[in-house]
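Case study: Transcriptional regulator, TetR family.
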Amino acid sequence: MTELQKGPRGQRRGRGARERILAAAHDLFREQGINNTGMNQLCEVADVSKNTAYQHFTSKDQLITEHLRQQDPGTMPEVFDRADLTPRERLLAAFETPAASTLETTPLCPFIEAAVEIADPEHPARILVREYKKSVAVRLTETAREAGAIDPELLGEQLALLLDGASVRTRALGTGAEQTAAGIAAMLIEHAIPQTAPLRL
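Here is what the predicted structure looks like once written out:
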């Protein structure tokens, strides 16, 4: 087997380079935004040459799109695929956050970030954002239907809007809005889904 070409500071190009590029994109886009991150800086952080970067991603636009795909490829499986929870409990779980969460650990939703920073509605990343946000609403609606909601489509859209609003408010104010959002979600679910037992928060 021939030796792989080496990139900056002796790193081998090829194997592992793609993962390093995506990891660098994740950190830089999160810390300083998409538009403020250039390919030169990204390559330096990923420890790859620009030639190597463009072998894996033909453009920054393609990198942004793949970065978003990596964020949540299964549409919140940690919530919607939990067999240990009832459908009603899964709806509430969508609003749970780790006890130690801070603005640094729960930044603005990367899909919202991309929608704000990328002006072109036909940009592949913007198209992916629309598809993802619709998929979240669909999964919420499906779960609401399983839970017996009177109008699952309405509840799904309400909860999707609430999730996005909490993310933006947390980013804007520097304080978590998740607890307030969880309380509002509980009230919406209480109203929309007939029940015989009290909600578990």
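For the exam, be able to explain this: The two ends are 57 Å apart (CA to CA).
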